[in-house]
Amino acid sequence: MQNETMVDVQGLVKSYGSHTAVKGVQFQVKKGEIFGLLGPNGAGKTTTIEMLVGLRKPDEGTATLAGFDVKKEVNKVKEVIGVQLQSTSLFELLKVEEILHLYASFYPRNINIDTLIEDMLLTEKRKDRIKGLSGGQKQRLAIALALIHDPEIVFLDEPTTGLDPQARRTLWDIVLRLKEQGKTILLSTHYMDEAHVLCDRIGIMDQGELIALDTPTNLVKKLHSTSTIEFHLNNPPEQEWFLKMEAVEKVSIKDTFVQLYTDNLQQALTSLIQLSTEHNLKIEDLQTRLATLEDVFITMTGRSIRES
Ligand code: ATP
């Protein structure tokens, strides 16, 4: 059933001492969806995932995975989930196929290991020791280990952090193939492009809260600004000055870097050039581009995901 809710999270809260890392997050993920938690470091993504997979006990709230309660039905939950964590440490001296057989022995039900090795593009490395693998290969092995018992729901915590662009793209293909196989995937990331390419829906997290939740396209649409004009200006005037310009919806200024958000690029550019000529402003490095998820985060929080 495609519309079946596989992940149902209701008001999860978790504090470390006096610091509340997750402040009542709430979301659902349907069967076969890729759902992304997108946010800067420290937003609470890992803590949320750890509560769902049974590694941390929520202070408040409830969650079910494939209908099983994460607090009360821990063993059932373990059967239906596969987990790749940021800190997965593998037995470095084992060979790739050895660790897969070892993990397979932990479960009553397994998928075919040869197929898994092929799917994770590890065929040439199957007889190599783990310590000799590249970052991308280790990450693919970690995902293989998460899939060995053929789980319905797969958790991937920042699966491409630290990987080079080529290795990231390879991993994206693997995640998309898992979706094709009908898996439900919950992943966390602080890469906007990754969230955009992979996720059917995204929950944007900041400081322990889900501040927005929608499809990538709708999140950008809700900005009411399809384009961004960016430039540098020595001593830029206050935001209000730019907001008086025709067709400019929002403004962000960081030192000399100015971003104007607009739904009418031509009109906004015309008034920018007119006004800058009138006031003798020296605009440098002018660029225009389509709005992205990064712009959604900036307009909602006033900060960039990368600088948070
Ligand atoms: P990252 O991408 O850096 O892992 P995140 O969004 O996954 O970020 P969390 O790791 O969940 O965020 O951390 C949320 C907040 O809780 C941060 O302020 C972090 O410092 C704090 N935190 C996380 N784990 C612990 C812990 N074991 N003890 C105390 N504080 C913690």
From TrEMBL:
Keywords: ATP-binding, Cell membrane, Membrane, Nucleotide-binding, Translocase, Transport
Keyword ATP-binding: yes
Gene Ontology MF, one: ATP binding
Entry keyword Cell inner membrane: no
Compartmental location: Cell membrane
InterPro entries: AAA+_ATPase (IPR003593), ABC_transporter-like_ATP-bd (IPR003439), ABC_transporter-like_CS (IPR017871), ABC_transporter_ATP-binding (IPR050763), DrrA1/2-like_C (IPR025302), P-loop_NTPase (IPR027417)
Domain ABC transporter: 7-232
GO cellular component: plasma membrane
Family statement drawn from the similarity comment of this UniProt entry: Belongs to the ABC transporter superfamily.
Protein name: ABC transporter ATP-binding protein
Originating organism: Metabacillus litoralis
